Amino acid sequence: MLLDVRELVMEEQRQEHLILNKVLHILLSSTRETDLCGWYEDGCVLGTILTELPSGSPLGAVNTILARVNAALLQTLGLTQVNLLRFSFHVFPEVSNDDTSGPISADLKLYPDLVDRKVSRRVAQAIKRSIDVTGSLFLLVLLSPLMIGIAVMIKLTSRGTIFFRQKRVGQYGHPFTFLKFRSMRSNTNAALHREYVTQFISGATQKSAGGNGAGVYKLTKDPRVTLFGSFLRRTSLDELPQLFNVLMGQMSLVGPRPPIPYECACYGTWHRRRLLEAKPGITGLWQVSGRSRTKFDDMVRLDLRYVTSWSLWLDFKIMFQTPRAVFSGDGAY
After folding, report:
1. Which residue, 214, 215, 211, 213, is CA-closest to 225?
2. Structural domain boundaries in the chain
């Protein structure tokens, strides 16, 4: 629970310290002993962590606490001053609007460290964005004959569209349309991949007669993939259209891979940090460190290592290592 007192402080500048002490005393006396009160923003916003709320219906407990705090504020300050206060509530971990597959949009009020880091890296991030735009434009022009050839082969070898469009989850949980060259037959069902990924994230995958090995992030013998699509996947050429996603600002050349919404539904709380810290990328530390052979938790740890130790030099290092990872085909399916 955040209580913004800026308007009240501006109105009562001569008695600022007295008013703040009153509000803080009211919060401490009207919340529970298990709740924690303090400054969210020094001198501007008071924060209260409401611990031990009922898991089934936390809203009822929140309304009870809010009513108690409001009553105490009205009794001490009066209606005019209380109307200058602004309450907001933020639930952690965030809950998806869709219980089954919806992306979880991040509430940045819960992650002030991300905001501070973003400000401190503002210049470097601007340079990163300029590299993304320049690099994606250059590669699109350079690789345009290859991309046209791939498009022709897709049309010649299977029925359907050239591009595969899919909803993915970007930074802060914002969804976007992800582009790839189509490597599967048209109108395929995602149930097979969804079931496998759910088991993989939970660590329950087992080797099977179909060739789906434990510890592999993709189905190694996916019956939905076309013959030419299998070649595109092994060489990672199916990823080239994501250069358009980079150009539009939805992705970066380097960053964590963007998950499918139903993957996010299986995430633990700590897994979600990979969605917050950086834009998703075409390549990343995971891709140059084993790709699909890496266990899911290890993949997330690699993403978190990347975002916490990020620098422009690290991006260049990963980009230089990517061609070797692609040509070796290690972990690509």
Report:
1. 211
2. 2-88, 112-328
